[in-house]
Predict the 3D structure of the following.
Amino acid sequence: MSAFLSIEDLTVELKSGMPVLRGVSIDVNVGKVHGLVGESGAGKSMIGKAILGILPRALSVTAGSIILDGEELQSMAPKTRRELIGATAALIPQDPLTALNPVRRIGPQITRRLIDILGWNKANAETRALELLDEVNIPDPDRVMHSYPHELSGGMRQRILIASAFAAEPKLIIADEPTTALDVTVQKRILKLIEEMQERHGSALLFVTHDLGVISKIVQSLSVLYEGKVVETADLRNFFMQPSHLYSRALLQATPKYTDPDRSLTPVSDEVTAILADEIDVWDKEHGYHV
Amino acid sequence: MSKALFQVRNMYLSLPDRARKRVFGPAPKIEILKDLNFDIHRREVLGIVGGSGSGKSTTGRALVRLLKPTQGSVTFDGRDITHLGAVALKPLRRRFKMIFQDPLSSLNPRHSVSRLIGGPLNLEGFSDVDGRVVDALSQVGLTKEFMGRYPHEMSGGQRQRIGIARAIASRPDFILADEIVSGLDVSNQAQILNLLENLVAELDLTLAFVSHDLSVIRRLCHRVMVMHQGEIVEIGAVDKVFDAPQHSYTRELLNAIPLPDPDQDWAAA
Amino acid sequence: MIDGRSQIRQRAGLRLWLSAGWLSLLALAAIFAPFVAPQDPLVQDLFTSRLPPFWQDGAEPGYWLGTDNLGRDVLSRIIYGARVALGVAILAATLAGLIGGIFGLLAGFYRGWVDIIVSRVIDIWMSFPPVLFAILLIAVLGTGLHSIVLAIVIIDWTRFARVVRVEAMTQGAMDYVDAATVAGSGRFGILMREILPNVLPTIVVLVTLQMGIAVIVEAILSFVNLSISTDSPTWGGMIAEGRIAIYQAWWVLVFPLITLFLTVLSFSQLGEGLKDRFDPVLR
């Protein structure tokens, strides 16, 4: 069975020619959850943005392919691509505060995608929105539909964004650090909610985070990123039990574990950083970048 | 000399609710802290945990008198500092310091490192300020080349270390660390936590560590104070509180820790 | 970090150099006018009236940009006109910046009743129609450099105060202010040492923008003959005169207009360029 989302050798460059993503290859199967971990600046968010076609203007895809549901995205006309993404994929963003338009009520923000992109009529779209708000356990969905974002709590806003993402029954969801801005107790509920929704709707999920604790609760497999390059891809158990790359091991060593408080925390050592730098240099040289 | 460096009794703190401000006259007040009672013992590391809105940061700021309690008292080393004005507080300021969460906003972008660390030392009347700055830098593992650098010329981890250097430069008795590793990568976090642990031992510091991360608290602190909606719901030795939580909110917090372990789901209280 | 920083830096460099270049040239010409101007700007000579600029037939050497109806050299008049324009610009903008900046800083940093009073004063002040205000002022004070400068300052200080107030409020909410408090700094010390350096770039940019505005205001006033009282040439005055003879001697209107345009543009670009330069993140 070929993957629903297949990214092959994706390279993204800055206008100045510096690579930001280095030959990234990732597969996500239908109905499965794949994680992207790495420290900040590693490029994890960039992958999601490249798929959805929302890379910042300073960046562009210069090599590799993104195949979604059998279609190659890079070679499509922009309009066709936008329509395919609109119908097939959705994003759960990191910051629930800025992801919602502060001057519009919640209702139109959920129904917009259904009405504008998929051509639903207003009544059907609103019914669906209410259903979704109920699915994400929002009390009094009708009142919430007519509220403004600032009248609701962070946790509620994130639920709305999740509901919004699942509105058009997308086959691929990209969750970009969806719980980083949330309280620990809210985080747990939101993670469970995302898991439930994903299972119920059968979407493939690409989950981006820097938190190893969070990732172990929701993904089945993951890729580790360092400076735009995938250094390890493994399924969840193997990653934690027998990580194959030095960097993965270093990350695990540096993560505080609640059940083992006296274990020493070692930051990523200079040796590991040097080895990683070498790997990056080798890749850069092979692909014609100045080192 | 009493065991307690800080003594907080019946402390209430209200702040104006800017969102409900009227055109003329002051904004109505919201009660942020309600009837807090606790001690901070000399040379202990006290963790202060809670969700957002729990009042943990406000409590810390009340301790270092960035905020003034509306009611009740804060006693530092036997002295009541609750109502002291800026002038009276000044000589005491060198004894309790604060490290902030966001090094970008807590370091003046237009000040060089030597000014960031040396400025307060000058204000406090120290001699040989430059020497002390270099000393503080070396204690956080930075060379004196950093003296002339500006915040935007450093990495996040380095900036946070400058924040720490600034706090320890005057050899204070007490440091408040307000979510100081929350914005850092796991590797930087480990570095900073190790650094902090060493400094606490070397410099005989009393530390109040505000955080939402229970794994870090468990590792670093002797006692922990759990806050919820402006009140202390539980306080005690770390192992006791975490292994046998008395309050339902503590249990809720503990249950929500995602363990970095594929077999164990969530920490069970 | 991923961004287009180097590109912004390049654009800022070019912008800064061009605008600073033009303004420096103008300033030098204005200061050394008696030595730089080819002719006496006030001398009228009917034999040299309506001469075209140097590249056209009928031009005469020494009158590079032509002459007007009364035989006065356009280039020399432009140079002397720059004295008025730049003089008004620098004086008015600096004064407005100083006054507005001080009130803005006090209101934005100290808040409380200081802010309430200053904000209400600004609101009321700004509700006077500015052009009417200016004309009224000049009617009372009489024409002259001092009136123009005063008029501009009185009208525009509020623009500075408002922006600086917000900037001071924003900086005042930063953690480094708390850090300074914890270090024992008093409020006034914090205002001077922490807040002011971070608000200064905004003020500088606004001052350069204000200079451009002042040049335009002076031009408008001299256009309607409400500017300085002497016969000294002004760009606005030249434009007014040139308007009448536009079909016979287009150069009398066009050259002062171009100079005016370039000068105002340079001030605004200077402001933009300085803003980019001052942003510590781009340094």
